[in-house]
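--- STAGE predict ---
source: upstream dedup step, 1 unique chain passed
mode: sequence only
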Amino acid sequence: MQGPPFPAGCGWRRQHVLSPWPRGQGASVSPESTSQLTADPPPTAPRRNSQLTLWLSIAGLVLLAAATWYFWEPLWHYTQRIWVLLQNKEAFRQRIESYGVWAPLVFIIFQIFQVLVSPIPGELVGAAGGYVFGWLPSLVYSTIGLSAGSWINFFLARLLGQGLVARLIPPQYLSKISFLMERQGVIASFIFFVVPGFPKDYLCYVLGLAPMSWRIFLVVSSVGRIPGTLMLSLQGAMIYQENYWSFVLLGIISVAFILPVYFWRDRIYGWLYRLEGNRGPLEKKED
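--- STAGE serialize ---
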C-alpha cells in the first residue's frame, strides 16, 4: 500500500507511517524499500482552476486590447468630451443622471477608464461622483471601478512583461519602487496605495511583475485606495450641498497631510525600501 505524500525532507515520517511496527521496533527494512519510501513524491499537476483563470484573463485582455485598437479614434474623442464634462460638475451630473438606472454602471466605467487612460484626472472623477450620488454611493461605485481598473493594469504588466512597464512609467518613479518587483512587498504596497499623491496606476504595473498573487493585490489595492476615495467623495458631496465651510476644512486637512508627504517623499521611499528588508541606499533621481 502506498502512503500519503509528504514534503521533501520528511522521509522518516513516510517510513514509519507506512510501517505496521512502532518506531524502533519490528522487522528490518531493506535499502531498496527504504529508498522507495523516502523518495520525494512526483510534482503535482497544476490545478484546473488556476489554468482556467489564467486563460480567461488572457482572453479578456486580448479582447480589451483589440477593442481599444479598433475604437481608438472614437475613444480619444470621447476622452476629450469627458475632460470638458469634468470641468463642469453640473453638466457631468446631468449627463450621468440621464442614464437613469444605469447611471451607477456608467460611473463605474468612468472610473475604470480613468485608471487605464492617464490623461483623465482621477481626483476630478472621484469628486464628481460625490457631487452626483452623495458620498457613500460614490465611495462604493468608485471602489468597484478603481479595483477593476487596477486589476486590468496588474494583469497587463503580468502578461506583457517588464518592457511594457519600462515604457509606461517615468524613470524617476520606477527607480524608487522597482524593489517591489523582487519581493512581495505587501506592507510597502499598501502604504503606497494609502499615501495621497502617489501615482497608484504606476504601482499596479510594477506589482504585476512582483511575486504577488492577484488575490492579495486586489485586497491591497482596493482597501488602500479607500481613504483617498472617501476624501474625494466627501468633498464632492459638500460642494453639492453648498456646505463650503466643511469643504474648506476638509481641504485644509487634506493639504496638511499631503504637503509633508510630498516634501518628505524621498525619506518615505527609503523607509519602505528598508522595511522590505533591503540594505544600502535607495537610488535617487531628480523628479
